[in-house]
Amino acid sequence: MENKFDCHTHQQQPINGIRNFHQQQKQAFDDYALPCSVGLHPWFVDAQNWQTDLHWLQQAAQQPKVVALGECGLDALRGADLATQQQAFIEQLQLAQQLRKPLIVHCVRRFNELIAIAKKHNTKQVTPIIVHGFNNKASVLHSLLNEGFYVSFGAALLQQNSAAAKALCLTPLNRVLLETDDSTASIEQIYQQAATLLQLNVADVVQQIQQNWEQLVDNS
Ligand SMILES: [Zn+2]
To answer: What is the pTM of this model?
Structure first.
């Protein structure tokens, strides 16, 4: 069986993929030896203490096991005020640029602000950005693709007629990634569903996504 690349997961230890750690998981991050991502999650960014966490991240992110920064980003429904979230996000974007590692982004109802930051920091030229857990409408998808973003899809694909399922079919295959995130679905189920929606063989999807990840790392 091929190893299906899981771009972003919290729960499993992926056979092939990226386990994510945030600022409230410092010990678990230290104890983990396999490829992972680390970032300041916007839910846990607070106006008083986030810079302390940023110092920790600046060290942590240099470790070779850290293959991407994040998840970080903007969330209109949870976490600190927008200005603080933006500052924390920009710091992490710049850190990803310095370290030449891709950035995994969490974005809830802040896509305009995300795109404005990406434009201002010229990310198209510098850092590959993956918007994870995409489940939004086509107009949002197109504005992300125009900025050169990669888009990662997860368990929302399993829901009938989800926005994610429609968006997957509108995304150029070389910009697609797949993930389990915090769902209980397996990466096999996600790949199977993506293949069904795209009318492709699972093996072709596996190969394409692996190639996308490798290219993304090369471009960092
Ligand atoms: Zn996540």
So the answer is: 0.96
Q: What tokens were used for 96?
A: 């990803």
Is the per-residue pLDDT at 11 higher than 90?
A: no
Query: How far is the CA of 12 from the CAs of 34, 178, 183, 184, in angstroms?
Result: 12, 14, 10, 9
Specify whether the CB–CB gap between 76 and 109 falls below 8 A: yes
Distance of CA 23 from the midpoint of ligand 1 (Å): 13
Is the CA virtual torsion 208, 65, 102, 170 positive or negative? positive
88-128 pLDDT, tens per residue? 999 999 999 999 999 999 999 999 999 999 999 877 778 89
- Which amino acid type is present at position 94? Q
Q: List CB-based neighbours of ion ligand 1 within 5 Å.
A: 181
Nearest to 120 by CA among 81, 144, 82, 90: 90
- In CATH terms, the fold of domain 6-218 is TIM Barrel (3.20.20)
Question: What is d(CA 67, CA 34) in angstroms, rounded to the nearest whole number?
Answer: 10
pLDDT in tens, 83-92: 999 999 999 9
Strand partners, 68: 37
CA of 178 to the centre of ligand 1 (A): 12
Spell out the domain ranges in the chain: 6-218
d(CA 131, CA 141): 10
How far, in Å, is the centroid of ligand 1 from the Cα of 2?
Answer: 24
pLDDT at 177 over 90: yes
